[in-house]
Amino acid sequence: MRLNQLATVLDDLTYPLTADELSAALEGHTLVHPTGEEPASAVVERCGSASMTSADDAWLSVMGSVDEGAVGRKFYTDRDPPVGPREFDAVSF
Q: 43 and 49 in contact (C-beta within 8 Å)?
């Protein structure tokens, strides 16, 4: 499943859950991302959270533990101002 489909699976679970219980619930699911895939249970094992009280808590724990290949270009942001020898005036819209 793609990462954005995980939220639906997490919503169907009953909370609170330990990381071990969540890992067991996600057994057999594979998370697919742009640079590959990995078992969902392996991602949960990396999160190290003792207890998850809601689907949002589980989602944040999993998203914080996915492989770096799942997050796009590392250290990239289109929100930072350009860096270089030129000075730019801030523009407000």
A: no
User: Rounded to whole angstroms, how far apart are CA atoms 10 and 26?
Assistant: 9
Both tokens of 28, joined, read: 């057999």
Query: In 3D, which of 57, 73, 53, 59 has the Cα closest to residue 31?
Result: 59
Position 54 confidence tier, pLDDT thresholds 50, 70, 90 = very high
Question: Would you say residue 75 has pLDDT above 90?
Answer: no
User: What are the backbone dihedrals phi and psi of residue 46, each rounded to the nearest 5 degrees, phi first?
Assistant: -75, -20
Dist CA 60 CA 57 (whole Å): 5
Query: By C-alpha distance, which of 73, 62, 68, 7 is closest to 40?
Result: 62
Per-residue pLDDT at 16 exceeds 90: yes
